[in-house]
Amino acid sequence: MVEHNGANGSETFRGLPRLGEPAPDFEAITTHGMLRLSDFKGSWLILFSHPADFTPVCTTEFVGFSEINSELNKKGVQLLGLSIDSVYSHIAWTRNIEEKLGVKVPFPVIADINREVAMKYGMIMPGESRTETSRCVFFIDPESKLRAMIYYPLTTGRNMQEIIRVVDALQATDKFQVATPANWKPGEKVIVGAPNTSSMAEQRMKDKSLEVVEWYLSKKAL
Asked: Of 58, 123, 164, 191, which one is the catalytic site residue?
């Protein structure tokens, strides 16, 4: 990763991890005890960060993530939160969410006080804040490979349905070796790979088993 020194030279901000490469390894204290990336091997993992406990937008997001947790679990996906607050702050905040909003937070939350995990994943954006993690979402597959990333500013809460949609799209790609078009949702047609020779392009135009818009753009139902 590329490293950037802070303005005072006292801290280092690393570049973002890369898609298609192994997700940065970690071992961290969480609200469910010590956890490592390897503990999630064999299942999908969504690692997400939030700026701070006991803040309004983050509270709405934790409610949202809690509400989709069961649906994600059915898809073989686990959730793991993170901020640079202490484990005691995480426990107090999640208990407060349950008490005030009636929502129990079922997933673990990393207490990244030393910012070790945050730095590995490029969760801190110095232009926004040097003391808070941005709203990052990392989609990690069962082989611990980083498959997708989404970054949001501190002021914008995340869309939970989009997070589910990305999971569905990634899993469809892996299972059927296809791509998904803009705004795709399960049940809609997917995109098949484009021909890479002139003769294959000509054959594609005659393929009645596909919805052929043009030789390079063809769809099919799963």
From this structure: 58
